[in-house]
Amino acid sequence: MNRKQCFIVFVLACMLSSTLFAQSEKQRQLELRRQQVLKELKQANALLFSNKKKEKSVITLIEDLNYKVKARQDLIRITNDQANYLTREINTNQKQITELRAQLQELKDDYAAMIVKSYKSKSEQSKVMFLLSSENFKQAYKRVQYIRQYREYQREQAEEIKAKTQQLQELNIKLTHQKAEKQKLIEENKIAKRQLENELKEREALMATIKADVSKYTLEIKKKQQEADRIDKEIDRLIKEAIAESNKKAGNATSTGKFILTPAAKRLAADFESNKGKLGWPVSRGVIKTKFGTHPSPIDRSVLERSYGIKIATEKNAKVKAVFNGEVSKIMLIKNANPVVMIRHGNYLTVYKNLSKIYVKSGQTIVTGQEIGEVFTNPRTGESMLGFDVYKEDKTQNPENWLAKF
Predict the structure, then answer these.
(1) Helix, strand, or coil here: 405?
(2) What is the pLDDT of residue 108?
(3) Which of 8, 122, 130, 397 is a good FRET partner for 254, with 20 to 30 A between their CA atoms?
(4) Residues 6 or more apart from 399 whose CB is under 8 A from it?
């Protein structure tokens, strides 16, 4: 093999290696995501479906099932992706095994031919005669070098055969594991699909019960949205008020809608911002039942539901924790609503809604993970739902983008 051919083989090997690494990394990420979804499903079962005795409304039951169906569909999709990646890896490894076997056979044939040749000329006398028949010293020296190189080449061939054999064995073991892993994923997906079918049937049955009186449930959804809007509007007003009060204390009575920050507050805001996507959850266990933004209602898709934050279903009387260092800006007692705690982190605010107990007071310095209260548990439905919002100044942010993956 000449230098150009060696270079081409080297480049191809590097490309194959980088492709395999990328596939392995993708497979690792998919497995992490799959485990996360499995954890979400487990928590959903524990937090949303364990208490059968409580009287949940049909709307709540459908919302709970929607969460579960979505998670189950994600699980099936991710598992399919994993199986597909494994199929590609298996095909690549099978191709490598075929090529290695051919290379190994070629090496063995060459080595066998060398052994035969060496056997025929193995006597020391023949080697001596080979040297003595040299026409001059220079030729004799070259023949000595040739004998040494030939022996070295034999040794290298033997080592290469050994290495290729080991590589082939390792690939065969890897292939066996991959096939077993793929089969396991296929079996798990079969179970997940059966569970999804049951959940879809259950949801369909619930939807059938409300078809006769959709307008009644639509009205219920709208009332619920109006109540949420009222609370969010009041929180928005109180945030603007908090900004104005803070700026007034700082000696600026001008209404800018933005906090005037001290150097310490700027550092705190920068620290908070640098932890985007890494903040701890405000509860130890929970699933996001309501997402940020505007979404069509699962009951009547012509009705839009808005959320300025997220709602986290958690366990009964769950302790609520501050997601970051800060200061309690306000304890909000809103009419016909459960208490709300607002914590300031420079020019950022985190808002914790639907509490039953509060452990902190306005102006108190808070550290990350400190318990600030308890989530209210509805005695009739058994639901424990924490509302969690994130604001920059008076502008809402998607809290999911700030929290670490559970």
Answers:
(1) coil
(2) 74
(3) 397
(4) 292, 309, 310, 388, 389, 390
Query: Residue 188 burial by CB count (10 A; 0-12/13-18/19+): exposed, middle or buried?
Result: middle
**Alpha helix locations (H) across 121-136?**
124-132
CA separation for the pair 227, 237 (Å, rounded): 15
Q: Alpha-carbon Rg of the chain, whole angstroms?
A: 35
C-alpha closest to that of 114 among 165, 169, 163, 161: 161
> What DSSP letter does each residue of 30-94 carry, written as one string?
HHHHHHHHHHHHHHHHHHHSS-TTS---HHHHHHHHHHHHHHHHHHHHHHHHHHHHHHHHHHHHH
- Along the chain (406 residues), what's the average pLDDT of each consecutive run of 10 residues? 47 49 74 87 82 73 89 91 85 80 75 61 52 63 62 69 76 82 89 91 86 82 90 92 86 77 94 96 94 88 90 94 96 92 97 97 96 93 93 95 88
Cα(205)–Cα(208) distance, rounded to whole angstroms? 5
For the chain, list the domains and their CATH numbers: 3-211 (no CATH), 229-401 (2.70.70.10)
Bridge partners, 311 (sequence order): 290, 387
Task: Give the pLDDT score at 25.
Answer: 83
Q: Count CB neighbours of 179 within 10 A.
A: 14
SS3 315: coil
307, two tokens: 């959320």
What is the 8-class DSSP label of residue 403?
B
Provide the token pair at 150. Answer: 């030939």
Q: Residue 267's pLDDT is what?
A: 96
Distance CA 131, CA 151 (A): 16
Backbone angles phi, psi at 244, to 5 degrees: -65, -45
- Rounded distance, CA 387 to CA 115, Å? 79
